[in-house]
Amino acid sequence: MKSPKFLKAVAIATLAAGLSLSHAAANAQALRLGTATEGGVWFVLGNGLAQAVGEALDTRVMPVTTAGSMENGRRLSAGGDLDLGLMLSTSLKNGIEDGTIDTDKIRVIGAGHGNFLQVVVRGDSGISSWSEAFQPGRIVGVGEPGSAAFEVTTGAIEAQGQSLDRIQQARLGHQAQADALKNRDIEVMVVTPGIPTGAVVSVMSTIDAKLLSGTDAELDKLLEAQPFMARGLIPANIYNNQPENAATVMLPSLMMATAQISDDEAYKATKAIYESTAKLTAVHSNGSQWTKDNALASRKYLEALGVQYHSGAIRYFQEIGIW
């Protein structure tokens, strides 16, 4: 006959094994959400999005550090790794064209905060419009080659009827442009991140500078040339000495999902995202843009690419009357 101590030890071991299996099963059911590199908006906000979706689905959603948009799209398309991920429509287009993203394998959940085209000049420059800013001979910051900023900025210049060969391109990143504008090494600073942008804060807080608003005609030209963009508005007083709203364009951040996510999961995730704006704003200021008003930004362009919205997301959008 086994001793009581032996039986107790067996019972403890059995319980521990059961708990271990339960823990493993829970982890196996966890969803993975691709964000970006540490320190950026997507990394920070991605953690908040993961928490909101996890609470809605009553499961663990793990934020995963990645290289960002293109990697997230490729991993979602490949399957078995990420379940959700943040992307830009430019990466979707490029991935579809180079064959690394299969439109049958991914779905759109919705759009949120934008990456805004921001054109900044010195107050004494005499420049008052985008068209004037991009005139031949100007020294213009265009971003680093290969970056999304470079693609958007050079496209914006060409959309206004100007040749890139006729301006002096300063191929600098955001902060380098800020320093160059302060030192009068460039005449026009053009950056494309979320708002407020640290580099623009630096300029507007230290020198007499102004943020230019695009006219309706200028915006229409740009949107015709770059249909993956959407109209955007930078609210007054986002920056020092910016008393009025600035009309511009933005490249929306997208929440994407693998096509394997169930209709119910996608519905609950979508509802959680767009009904958690206050919580997301507490995580990062750009969380305030994850609203129902922005949810379908770039819809026509995405559908033209052949990328479908998830049926669960559509169900939620139909319920709130925006689909």
From TrEMBL:
Pfam families: NMT1_3. The keyword Protease does not apply. Residues 1-24 form the signal peptide. InterPro entries: TRAP_TAXI. The keyword Signal applies. It comes from Marinobacterium rhizophilum. It comes from the Bacteria. Keywords: Signal. NCBIfam families: TRAP_TAXI (TIGR02122). This is TAXI family TRAP transporter solute-binding subunit.
